[in-house]
Structures are given as C-alpha cells and as structure tokens.
Design brief:
The complex is a heterodimer. Chain A has helices spanning 9-15, 34-69, 71-78, 83-108, 112-142, 154-157, 163-169, 176-180, 182-215, 225-249. Chain A is mostly helical. In chain A, 35% of the residues are buried. Chain B is mainly alpha-helical. Chain B has 16 helices and no strands. In chain B, helix 6 packs antiparallel against helix 7. The two termini of chain B are 34 Å apart. The chains are: A mainly alpha, B mainly alpha. Chains A and B meet through helix 1, helix 2 and helix 9 of A and helix 6, helix 7 and helix 8 of B.
Chain lengths: 254, 555
C-alpha cells in the first residue's frame, strides 16, 4: 500500500538501480514496467468479464429451458413487453457504448475536456436507460404482471380484456395451466433485467466517481487503465442487454 | 526415521532471523489490515481459516459424539441437522476452498514465479475482507439458530419447507464465493503476466500449475453458484418460482446449476493440495518430479474434465438414463489424470534418496488416503453401485478420504514444509512426525468404518440409527478423538516454534524453488533483485553448483 522505497534500500543502492527515478508515478511498485501493469490489469478485467458471463449464464440456462417447456406462454407473455421502449433502450445503450468508446479515445489522446464530456454523455444515456426501464416495470406493476401474490393471468386467459396488446397481436387465449406459466416468464424477465439493471446502477456509480476524477485530470496523464477497463465493463453490460432484448422481446419474431 | 535427513540449518549460535522482513517491515494493526503484501494477506488468511477449521472441527466432534449411541441421546434430531449442515458449510466454504490457495498459494505464488507480489494486491486484500464478511455472516447464522438444509441448499427443502436462516447462509456463501473468484482471478493474471525472465510455462513449479488449474475452476464455476444462490434467495423472499414445481419451475434445474459449481469445487479443493505434494515429494526424494509435463497437464485435464461430470451427483434424482450413462463415463475419465499424478509421484520416489521429515510423512498419508478416496469414487461413479451406495455413509467416507485424508494432509504437509520460509523458524521435528502419524491412524479409525457402514446401508444425515451399526460407529467416534489430538498438536507446537524454533536459514530443505533462494522470512518485495530463471524446475544439480559457488566466494 505505501511506497516501497524504504525496503532493502541498501540492496537497491548497491545494485545501482538507475531506473528508480524514471518510473511514472502511477506505476505500482510490484510491476517491472508500465506495459506489464497495463497488460495485467487489462487481462484481469477480461477474466472478470468471463466470470460475469458465467454469472448471467445460469439465468440464460434457466431461461432457455423454461422457454422450451412453456413456449406458448413465453410468446404470449413477451407480447406484453413494449417493442418500442425495448428498441429505444437498445438504441440508448448502443449510443452510450459509442460515447464510452470516444471517452477511452479521449483519455488516450489526453484530451481532458472531451473525456469529461463523453463520460457525462455516457452517464446521461445510462440514466435514460434506467428511466425507460423504470417506465416499463411500472407498466407491469399496473397490469399485475409482477410475479407474486398479486400476479394476474387475466391478460392471457381472456386476451380481449387487454385491448392494447390484443389489437396488435390477436393472441388466442391460453389454457389456464399454460397461462399460469406466464408467471415463470415474468420471474425470469425481472430476474434478468433486474440483474442487468443492477450492473447498470453499479456502472453509473463508477461513472460518477470517474467524472470527478477525470475533471481533476487523473486519466489524461497517459494512465488510461481505469477508463479503458471501465469501458470494457460498460460494453459488456451493453452486450448482455442485446441478448436480453433478443430473448425477452423478440421471441415470436423472425 | 533416523535414516538421515536433508535438513541443513545454519549454525544456531550465530544465526539470526533477518531483521528486515515482511513481518517486521511495519508495525501496528492497521499496517496488517490495510496491507497489499501477499505474504501478510496469506498470514491473515491462515489465522482466519484456522479459526474456522476449529469451529468446523468442533461441530464434527459433536456429530461423532451424537452418533456414539443409536438413539438421539446428545441432541434432538433438529439440532443434529443444523450441526452437520454448519459443519459442511464452514468446512467447505470457509476452510477447504480457501485452505491451500489463499494461504500457501497466496504466500508462495509470487515468489515461485519470481515476482514481487500478486498482480492485483488490492483485489487480494478485498478477497480477504469478503472472506471475513462471509465468515462473520456464517458465525451470525450459527449464533442465531443455524440452518438445516445440508450444505447443498437442496430445493424445495431450502425454499419451502424449513424455517431456518437459509437466506443469511446463502448470502454468506455468495460473499465467500466472490472472495474465491478474486483469488482465482488474481492467480491467473499473476501467472500469465508476472513471471520473471526465463520462467517459461514448463519451468513453473507444479504447485503453480495446479493452482492455475484450480483458479480456472474458481473463476468459471463460482459465479454459477452465485446466481443459483441469488435465485434461492429470491425464491424465499419474493416467491420467484424458477425452482418451484408448483409454479412450473424445476428443482432438478437447481441441482444442475448447483453441482455445476459444486463438483468443480471439489477439484478447487484438491488440486492445490496435489501441487503441495508434488513439491514435497520432489524435495524429499531429491529428484525432479517424474513426468513433469504429464503432471502439469493432468492438473489442467482434471480442471477441464471437472466441468463435465457434475450430474454424477444426480443419478438417483431422475435424470435420463442416457445422461447418467454419459456422465458416468466422463466421471471415470477423471480417474485417469488423478492416477497419472499418483503414479508419477510413485516413480519420483523410485531410486530417490528419500528422507522422512514431517512434510513427507503427510505426503505419504495423502498418497495412500487419496488413492482410496479416489478409487471409491469410481464405485460411486458407476451408476449401478451408486444407486446402492449414494446417500449412505459410503459417500461420507469417500469424500472425507479425499477432502480430509487428501486435502487436509496436503495442507498440513505444505504448512510444515513452508513453515520455515514463512516464519524463519523450524517446527520441532520429532513431535511433528508423531502428530503426522497420529493423524494418519486417527483418520483411518474414523473414516474406514464408515465405508463398511455405508455398504451395510446406514444412511447419512440421521441422528439415530439401528443398534446393529453401533460397534462401527463407536470405532469411528474413537478414531475421531485420536484425529482431534492429531490436529491440536500442530497448533500447539507451531505456535511454540514461533519463539523457540531453531533458526531455519534460507533453504533448510535444500529445495530448488525460487522461494527458497531468498531469505526467511522473505522481504516485503521477496527478492533484492528480480531473479532470472536459468534452469529447469527441480534441478538439484543446479542447486549444488549454486551452493559450491557460494562456498567458493565466501571462502
């Protein structure tokens, strides 16, 4: 944690360590070169993302199995999701990935102001995504499609009772036992989008922290690891959403 | 035992522990709690896992005491369920998984590859804090009434039928799981990016290879357990129904997800132990490990196969016959790399100059007990015999032979082997040899009768049993008390040796690893200058030449 200069001072002096003064201040003492430090932290981030894939992998497995078993219920339940909001959110996230990539570029080019600007834009898109997600969830709440005691299968047993969706899709009524299984769809919908949103919230938190640090010029000294690794995380969360969008919203579309 | 010894200690009248080392570098509690030094974090881990080992061990003692008589005499059946559950959870998540990697691995990995520290010291410290948070939650659960689902969190029992602390326990395992993810991640990055000049992949000590394999399992397996536990928690709190058949969910899905982690987890527990044995066997027979490449790749093979055998825990749970057939075959495959290791250690001993210091005694214990544990695993991997033996004491005996007879022996072997490096002082040899033998005898008394009990059909996880099983259970309990002595002894004499042990010098075992070429205890930065690896691993001739040079230059 603290600097290492006191250790084995004699030994270092004896060995005539001429590089000692040349290291940039952000190089941690246990790395030989800045390149090694960058390589190692970058590699660590990729492995962390690998663990994230496995983490979401459990949910995707559950989803794929349930979707196979209760295909009809999943199709009809997916019609309850708004393609409009889903597409809008996908666009927002892709835009945020673009601004994030520009942020990394700005850090590499040592452009402090444009870095702050791009990080702020990314933050804005992040909030927009969460806001739209909030609207969608609220709609589920109103229609009693949040699983649990108040869950209602009305829209699936008697589709005409839900004219908005019915006029668009003309879904046939489901048998009561299959209609029950729509709840399983919404379990997974909330678990998956919820877990994704949690990752977004964490990302937004880190972004806010980074914006303050970027303003102080912390990332435009040539040390871009933090921005670069956060960029990887942000793109990863983006990619997860692309899969969620395809699996949850677009089941019955070809 | 008096055949000879390779121990060479410096002249005790003049020898001193080096004044500057990683322990004396800074003082005060904060310098430990905020440290980034892998050796200090390893020390923190060592203290904490020892603490949890003794809690888990005390619970094991209670289990054995209860099983002394056929009736539920010591505790009620409910209490018994909680005791064996907490024993399993503490031993697995808070002792076995972090035992070798987080203590010995943390301490040795950077030194073995010639680095100053792990690649991510802060993440390393974070992993210890996560472990401690998880551990505190575990203790909280125990103090407030415990949990009785078995360590496997089996649904729908855990989600619908018990009213104990399932949520806090699942959270504890979740948090501890991330601690092990971070350790594994750190190891992989360190091994890839921090090796010193000349340290090619095939010059790495086998301890590094086996920890690398275990790290892959930690990184890929643990997140799946994490999401499974999250789903359990959601099922209990908000009634999500992914595992609930009443809502269209599937408890078998839980089993698949759970064992997808928890089977690889047993390899997370055993692989680092195998690495310890490779080091010890080579050092105490003065020979390069026979078939180095085969042993290195067998670790990786175990890691890879380990991911494709999980359903052998589910043969009686209604998976399809074809799945059972395939998983049974794949399970048999794991025996191959494990056998490669055992055979190669045996060939390493062949024509070696073997000495019988304590680490070697434990290593011999490991080889024998692990072989029995492994072979009985083949019985259980065979679908026909599994249906008879599963959920009986045969399974209990099998995994205790592998985990306690294997991993714990390896852990103790490694602790004795690297104790002089860690503390700068030797442990007392005679009493520790005695402890190793006591452990071995106690272990066999405890767990061998359980194989027979299992064959006879005594089910696991019951507080009471038919009276005809009593004789063997008494045997087992008596053995457990011997085993307990075997585990208490090292704690006492190792603590004693901290102050009174002989000064060890840099390389008491004449071992070849880079960690032995630096002072004991090491400097915070491990080496005064970054070493250059100019020889193969386990090259004893290189070591001899090195020492001749030193003598020549001193003379």
């Amino acid at each position: 944690m603290s600097d290492s200069t006191t250790v084995a001072n004699g030994a270092l002096a004896e060995a005539g360590d001429s590089h000692h003064g040349e290291h940039p201040s952000y190089q941690r003492h246990h790395f030989e070169t800045v390149d090694q430090q960058f390589d190692a932290t970058n590699f660590a981030m990729w492995i962390f993302l690998l663990t994230e894939i496995m983490f979401f992998g459990g949910l995707f497995t559950a989803y794929l199995i349930m979707r196979n078993w209760y295909y009809q219920a999943f199709v009809v339940a997916s019609h309850q999701l708004s393609i409009f909001w889903g597409t809008a959110n996908t666009a927002v996230l892709i835009a945020s990935s673009f601004t994030m990539a520009m942020g990394v570029w700005s850090a590499e080019m040592k452009r402090r102001k444009s870095l702050v600007l791009y990080l702020c834009l990314t933050l804005l898109f992040g909030f927009t995504f969460l806001g739209i997600k909030g609207i969608e969830w609220h709609e589920k709440w109103e229609k009693h499609h949040i699983p649990g005691q108040h869950y209602s299968v009305q829209s699936f047993i008697n589709p005409q009772s839900d004219p908005e969706v019915y006029n668009e899709y003309h879904d046939a009524a489901l048998a009561p036992d299959m209609a029950q299984k729509t709840e399983e769809y919404f379990f997974l919908y909330f678990a998956m989008t919820g877990m994704h949103a949690l990752h977004m919230v964490i990302g937004v938190g880190i972004l806010i922290f980074m914006i303050f640090r970027a303003k102080a010029g912390a990332y435009t000294t040539g040390h871009v690891t933090m921005v670069e690794n956060f960029g990887l995380y942000w793109h990863f969360v983006d990619i997860i959403w692309i899969y969620l969008f395809a699996l949850l919203y677009l089941i019955s579309r070809h | 035992m008096s055949a000879g010894t390779i121990v060479s200690l410096p002249d005790q009248s003049t020898a001193r522990i080096p004044k500057m080392n990683f322990i004396t570098r800074e003082n005060g509690l904060l310098s430990w709690l905020l440290t980034g030094d892998h050796k200090r974090i390893a020390t923190l881990y060592l203290i904490s896992i020892t603490f949890f080992f003794f809690i888990g061990g005390a619970l094991a003692g209670l289990i054995r005491l209860e099983l002394l008589t056929p009736q539920t005499s010591l505790m009620a059946a409910d209490t018994y369920n909680k005791v064996f559950t907490m024993h399993g959870i503490i031993m697995i998540f808070f002792f076995l998984v972090p035992s070798v990697p987080a203590t010995l691995g943390n301490f040795l990995m950077p030194m073995m590859i010639g680095a100053k520290d792990l690649a991510l010291p802060k993440v390393n410290l974070l992993s210890w804090y996560l472990y401690i948070i998880g551990g505190c939650m575990g203790i909280y659960v125990m103090a407030t009434g415990g949990v009785d689902t078995g360590w496997t969190f089996t649904t729908p029992l855990s989600t619908h039928y018990v009213n104990t602390h399932v949520i806090s326990t699942a959270l504890a395992a979740f948090v501890a799981g991330f601690s092990s993810v971070f350790t594994g991640l750190n190891f992989i990055v360190t091994i890839h990016k921090m090796r010193c000049p000349g340290m090619t992949w095939f010059r790495l000590p086998l301890f590094v290879w086996s920890n690398y394999a275990a790290s892959i399992l930690m990184v890929l397996g643990t997140p799946v357990l994490a999401i499974t536990l999250v789903l359990i928690i959601l099922e209990r709190t908000v009634g999500i129904g992914v595992f609930d058949p009443a809502k269209g969910g599937d408890p078998i899905l839980f089993q698949h997800l759970f064992w997808f982690y928890s089977h690889p987890a047993v390899y997370i527990m055993i692989l680092p132990g195998m690495g310890v044995i490779s080091e010890v066997v080579s050092t105490f027979s003065r020979k390069r490990v026979f078939g180095y490449t085969a042993v290195a790749f067998s670790s990786v093979a175990i890691a890879v196969f380990g991911f494709f055998v999980w359903a052998h825990h589910m043969f009686i749970m209604g998976i399809s016959n074809y799945a059972a057939l395939i998983f049974s075959l794949l399970t048999m495959l794991v025996a191959v790399p494990s056998a490669i290791k055992i055979f190669n250690w045996a060939f390493t001993l062949y024509k070696g100059s073997i000495t019988f210091e304590t680490p070697m005694l434990y290593a011999f214990g490991f080889m024998g007990l692990f072989t029995i544990g492994g072979l009985t695993g083949v019985f259980l991997g065979t679908t026909g015999t599994d249906i008879h033996l599963t959920e009986t004491y045969f399974i209990v005996a099998h995994f205790h032979f592998v985990m306690v007879g294997g991993m714990l022996m390896a852990f103790l072997s490694g602790m004795h082997f690297w104790w002089p490096k860690w503390t700068g002082r030797m442990y007392p040899e005679k009493i520790s040899q005695f402890a190793a033998v006591v452990t071995f005898i106690g272990f066999n008394f405890t767990f061998f009768p359980q194989f027979i009990l299992g064959m006879l059909g005594m089910p696991r996880r019951y507080a009471a049993y038919p009276p005809e099983f009593q004789a063997l259970n008494v045997f087992s309990t008596a053995g457990a008390s011997i085993l307990g002595v075997g585990y208490l002894l090292p704690i006492i004499y190792l603590t004693w040796s901290l102050k009174y042990g002989a000064v060890a010098g840099n390389n008491p075992w004449q071992a070849t690893g880079l960690e032995w070429q630096t002072q004991s205890p090491p400097l915070t930065e491990n080496f005064t200058e970054i070493p250059i690896m100019d020889h193969e691993a386990y090259d004893y001739e290189w070591l001899e030449k090195q020492q001749e040079k030193e003598v020549a230059s001193v003379g």
